[in-house]
Amino acid sequence: MKPVRTLISALVLGGSLGLAVPASAEAPFGNQADMEMATSLWALMEYKGLAGDNAVMTRPYKGVAPHGMILELIELPVTLHGHTGPLIVKRNYGGDGISVDDVINDPERYLQAVTIMLKREPGYDADNRDWFYVKYDARGNVMKNPKGMPLAGRVAKGMQTGCIACHRAAEGGDFVFNHDRYK
Ligand code: HEC
C-alpha cells in the first residue's frame, strides 16, 4: 500500500500532466532513475580510473568557492547506456591551510567530494543544455542537500540556488566555467 500522501500527490500531478505517474518520478533530481544513473556512472568512473582507489592523479590547482580549496579537473567523452557525451569530473579537496603539495602527497586524506557534469541525450534538460549533475562523497555515495534531497540529476532545476542556478552564469551559455578559464 502506498502512503496516502504519495497517492494524493501522484493523482494531483498525474491529473495536471495527464499522466498517471508517481510524484517521485517527476522530481527534477534525486529520483530513482537519477540514483541508478549516478551508481552506474561511479562504476564507470572507477573502471576508467577517474574515481575511487585507483584514480589517476592530475595536476591539482587552487580553487574558489564553493568547490573547495584545491581542485582537480578532468574532461573526456564517456559512453553510458548507449549515449556518448562529455563527462567533466572535478575532485574537491579541503582542509585547514592545505597546499597543492599536501594534496599530491596524500589525496585521499583531503578529498571531500567528487562533483561531475555529464552531457545527456538531447531533451534530457533542454532548458539547461542537457547536463546531469552529481555530487558524490569520496567513496562514491551521492551526497544530499540540507533538505535531505540526493544531489543527482537536474540539480536543482527551478530553484534559486544549486548546481544549475550557479552554472547558468558560465560565459558562453554552456554551463561550464572552466571552458572560459584562459580567456
Ligand atoms: C555558487 C556557484 C556554484 C554552485 C552552486 C555549483 N558550482 Fe560547480 N562550479 C562553480 C564554479 C565557479 C566553477 C569553476 C571554478 C572551479 O573550478 O571551481 C565550477 C566548476 C564545476 C565543474 C567543472 C566544470 C566547470 O563548470 O568548470 C563541475 C563538474 C561542477 N562545478 C559541478 C557542480 C555540481 C555537481 C554542483 C552541484 C552539486 C555544482 N557544481 C554547484 C560554481 C558553482
UniProtKB/TrEMBL annotation:
Entry coiled-coil feature ranges: none
Keyword line: Signal
Ranges of residues in domain Cytochrome P460: 110-177
Pfam families: Cytochrome_P460
Entry annotated with the keyword Cell membrane: no
InterPro entries, sorted: Cytochrome_P460, Cytochrome_P460_sp
Signal peptide positions (record): 1-25
Name of this protein: Cytochrome P460 domain-containing protein
